[in-house]
Amino acid sequence: MSLGVIMLVHTGFDRAEQMVRHWADAGCPVVVHVDSNVPAAAYDPFEQALRDLPNVRLCARHRCEWGTFGLVAASQEAATLLLEDFPDVQHAFLASGACLPLRPISDLQHYLDAHPDTDFIESATTADVPWTVGGLDRERFTLRFPFAWKKQRRLFDAFVKLQQLVGFKRNIPEGIVPHMGSQWWCLTRQTLDAILRDPNRATYDNYFRRVWIPDESYYQTLARLHARKVESRSLTLAKFDYQGKPHIFFDDHAELLQRSKAFVARKIWRDAHLLYRNFPVSDQVQPNAEEPHLGAVDRVFFQAVDRRTRGRQGLYMHSRFPSIDRQVSIAAAPYVVLQGLGDVIPAFQAWLTKQTGAEVHGHLFAKDRVHFADESEVYRGGLSDNARLRDYNGKMFLSNLIWNGRDQHHCFQFGPSDTQDVCWTLAKDTNASIWVISGAWSVPLFASGRSASEVRAEAARLQRIEDKFLKILRSPDARARIKIMTLAQFIESPMDVLQTIIDEMAGHRGNALKEVPRMPDLTGLPDFLQDLKNQGMHPFLTGHITDGNTQQTKPVQRRKPYVISGK
Known about the structure:
There is one protein chain. The protein is 38% helix and 13% strand. It is of the alpha/beta class. It folds into two domains: 3-309; 324-550, Rossmann fold. The strands form five sheets. It has a five-stranded mixed beta sheet, sandwiched between helices. Strands 12-15-11-16-17 form a five-stranded parallel beta sheet, sandwiched between helices. Helix 3 (70-85) crosses helix 7 (189-196), helix 7 (189-196) crosses helix 9 and helix 19 (452-473) crosses helix 22.
């Protein structure tokens, strides 16, 4: 099976030539599109340098302005030429001149051979995943965007406001549901050919010409019409910061890129000489179809974004001086809020009560009723379990609960299925200690036995609610002691997390854990989460969960100590 490459180039022609030669030397046909904005003085030497490569073509050129249809037209032009001139190509890989293969090309070819009918393209609906940065979400598909955002910013903003003011909305072509995702895809020949030869292509092209950033939605939407099997992920490692701008990889990232086991990475700095010396890795005798390991990379970039947006606690500097605000304790005594623990550990409430001796409540803010620790209808101070009475003023309900039971350490569970009006109250309380396992709601959905298609809407709803809560917890106004981890991070080392919670709640009176409490069998959870992705719903809050993670969720049995005595 043959792999063909579509390469989009607009700058860094020395590095682009180097990458073209690497793909071509590995036996991959390459079709290169060069932005028509590139002057002849730069284009002509680049074209001349590639003439000695028989399996390389340069296609007709289009003007590629960021956020406009030119990038889609460029890939269409190159893809058409690739399929016409190279009939043996079975997978088409979209790359740029700043993309760097990290592993041997034979590894990628071997991997695609193992997935002959699979299209690797990140594709999710805007309703399911809050990826959009910049204020326009669903509107990018229902408004018109005739002006370039970078070069015509004032016209762009004014025209958007005008359309919003008059209530203008475009009709989405019948038969398609807009999807979004990374523009770097790898499609099968059948799917790509079906997209290019679609009888309604003129209608779709005309519609997407006025969509904002169509290169992140055109193929992602149409692939859902024609693909036989979609793996909703990209084979290219690309990271974006909190402003939606792509991260650039430098020489300092060499070890991180090597650990990722990704096939291709972008965006590589053109002067990262160490990276271009170390990568791509030379071909091996036996191709390796090992899956990329992106969990460590995700954690590093998450920490980088967190550091960039929140800074370091206690660090004062002229570039990030914090706003001074008065610390307020809403409750009379310290208390603990746990989100996700009850989903991952059955009978968690009873287990934690036994370990700490604290007043461990259930979901105090459940929508049906208040679940006090003793499941009574009336708690200390005459607090009722009626949800309507509680929700009349959730802040005062919590204050009264802690005040009337301030002789004990209180703990309660919280989650996306609960009433969310109290989120800011919890985040701003300096007496609150909040532990969150993000994505833990996926465990009950997985354990329910229902298919991904049946629980997709519920999973998307729970993720949206939890994501809003996490944004509140990460706000500069949050004053509680907050610890957030993904489900993947928790199941890697549950004992350390649980022991820390017990020590915080019970202090020296807490019991030392000898084994992890019984947890459900999570075998098959990675496949379930991937099925959700394939359905268009990306459970990004769960973290990167693999079969290796789930195997560690089984209870760890320790041998009983014994003594051998001699005479």
